[in-house]
Specification:
The chain has 663 residues and is of the alpha+beta class. Helix content is 34%, strand content 19%.
Length: 663
Amino acid sequence: MNSYPALRRGGRLRNAFLLLHIAQAFDFSSFGKKPAPKKKTFQESFETYKNKINLPEDAGAFARGTLAGIALSVFVAVGPVGDSINTEGREAREAAAQFEIVLDALDKRYVDRVSPKKLMESAVEAMLATLDPYTEYAKSTQASDMIESVEGRYGGVGLVISGKPRDSKDPVKAMKSGEVDVAVVDAYEDYAWEAGLRPRDTLLSIGGSTPSGSSGDAVLDAARSSLRGKPGTDVSVEYKHPWETTPRTTDLKRFAVRRRDVELVTLLPSPTAPKVVAYARVGGFSRETAPELVEGLASLRFDSQKSKLEGVIIDLRGNPGGLLDAAVDVASLFLPPDAVIASAGGRGFVRDATPSGETPKEKDGVERVEFRSRARGVTLFGVAPVVVLVDGQSASASEIVAGALQDYDAGVVVGSRTFGKGLIQDVSPLPFDGAALKVTVGRYYTPSGRCLQELDYEKERALSSKKEVSPKESFYTVNSKRPIESGGGVAPDVLVEPDTLTKAETALLRSGVANKFADDWVDKRPDVAKTLYARGLEPDADAASLVLQRSDLDSLKQRALKAIADDPDSKDGREAKREVEDAFRRHPDRILKVTDALVKERFFRSSALLKAQVSDEKAVVASMKLLSDKARFDAILAPPAKSAASAPNAVAAAGLGNAARDA
């Protein structure tokens, strides 16, 4: 039973007839569909396709109201603690009694006064440290954040805030004493951004009072509490842009804030113009990810008389995961109806997560629950070529989607090997102080039976000396019987190594030199800042053109060299300076682009910035070339006897190289 309130389902979920009018938007006539006589409106297309393609009304909700979360940063509950942990065994009862006796003795007899709560927390944390790193005890604030991540929403204005020390010479002391201003780190699109707030703004007052507290954390907690509230209500905020001297005042409306998982959906020009490629960047997996993706893809339009859809790119790079059921729904869009998308097994997981009327199936001596596509009718399977982009930070739910499409030969996986997290966690509330327990309850498997878990934590603990990699086993794809491996994440079909910054470039970003340069560049040019601010207010603002010039690089380089000279911890300043000089000589354009993006992110929506940079990214360029080469694309997915690829897991892409708070 789910211990958390059900999410409010908006109209898009209640009417989640997935793929709504994508067929018209994508001009599927090129793939054997009968062409429509004219372009239809959204409503006309909706009426045409709503009865052909749909997911259940509870798209994004797990069977019987429970949730199974698979992520690095988002976790969910499948029931109370008692349902997940068997305490009926004698050993468990004796251990619990022993712990209670020890805790009681320390509370009553220890020479100094102790806090039983702190002792308990220390003992639990030490106990869980012997297990995998995803099994954790969460205190009140952490537990609240976990549950908030599960629910996907909170009542607030859509700001990320942090403390800005007033004393720059001793920021640590300022933070400890509460001598901080409340600074905006990010303003979410569709929320506070639309009201005019921007990163680096200072919040002078909230609701008529200045946030205060005995420490920096207390100040931020006060500000956060003032900004949050019931959706539909307003809160007055006085704030100041860094390039202005006069404060501004506005009433921010509180919403059920939710950061969109689908960060960008756009059409990219194919190398074989005038053809186009649909591109979607998915940054996470929550209840509304699949409807968001459908909505975005369905909104794309192009002149079908002059152009043609060449394929679809689903970009999962940097996506840490999310809800299992959300991954199932996204994969359902590109797989046959009723296809098995993943299975999962574990001692408590099978009992708690088995949908009503479904019997767990046993494989290799382990009971598993199968998660099938919930799409009904037509899907995109076989309609358009699909590329899935992944990298080393694509984890968990991302790996479920990539692994499922790879297993069914439904798309080509491009990029680098994924993270390799094949474990499932649930989060259960504890009875006191708002704490919660996150427990690894099972492993998930792709349709072919692969477990993608990279590290074997049980063997690693026994060895105590090195990371033990899970053994790799051979499996085969469902349709073409191509050989693939388990363990170590999803190996790409086409290997495209990501661009790597030089040591000097990395230091430039991590040290804050480039960020401080961007701050000062903006502050010294208030007229330019006002112009950029006005441009950024436009819904379809173009962020592609450079703001900085080549001449600005010399000033940035001098700052980097000075930072090295002023660093007392620098062991080899001469070598570091040589590396900086070399980086600016060899990669000036790359450094200019990165620094230019730091300036523009203060004024432009993140989606506009992403759109401006994505078409030049090496992995995207490789994907576009692959989609334009149908023979090569088909050869990768063909059975081994017909495939031109010699390596079982990857075909090298030769020549294609290259503490914040929500409020």
